[in-house]
Design goal:
- This protein is mostly beta strands.
- It folds into two domains: about 1-60, no CATH class; about 70-140, no CATH class.
- Helices cover about 0% and strands about 30% of the residues.
- It has no helices and eleven strands.
- The strands form three sheets. Strands 1-2-3-4 form a four-stranded mixed β-sheet, with no helix packed on it. Strands 5-11-7-8 form a four-stranded antiparallel β-sheet, with no helix packed on it.
- It is elongated and about 60 Å long.
- The relative contact order is 0.18.
């Protein structure tokens, strides 16, 4: 039988929401996607889910420290749509995790460009020719501090 929260308003002040605690070696069995726990040995809130390679485990809920934003630059040719060699690889559907500018124009994720699980970006139309006119900013979703 499941449990429900009866109050729909979270109170402020001296009230708090309790979450399950444990060490990184102890967790719910069986684990279900989205479950959360405060790991007392790591001093962080984690959730049960999968990473980009499909490996299940506990992952930090929030970043710690300073995460370094990565920058890649390319020069358009006017005919080239595939640019390879980004600092990280991204799967299809992860376009919103990356900011791309052609010239000074922001590109619409998933519409102006797509990813296919490697370090390449494919534009739907070829960016115009220019020196370093394609700017790619990414690593915003990292949970690892620099």
């Amino acid at each position: 039988m499941g449990r429900m929260l009866k109050n729909t308003v979270a109170r402020t002040g001296s009230h708090a929401l309790g979450v399950p605690t444990g060490t990184s070696s102890i967790g719910p069995n069986p684990s279900t996607y989205g479950q959360m726990q405060y790991q007392t040995d790591a001093n962080k809130m984690v959730y049960w889910g999968s990473n980009s390679s499909g490996t299940y485990g506990y992952y930090p809920v929030a970043r710690e420290g300073n995460v370094t934003v990565k920058k890649d630059s390319y020069s358009g040719t006017g005919s080239q749509t595939l640019f390879n060699g980004m600092s990280y690889s991204y799967a299809a559907g992860q376009e919103a995790q990356v900011l791309i500018f052609v010239g000074q124009v922001y590109q619409n994720p998933g519409v102006a460009y797509t990813f296919n699980g490697n370090t390449a970006v494919t534009f739907t139309s070829a960016p115009s020719a220019g020196t370093n006119n394609i700017l790619i900013l990414h690593n915003f979703a990292s949970t690892s501090a620099a």
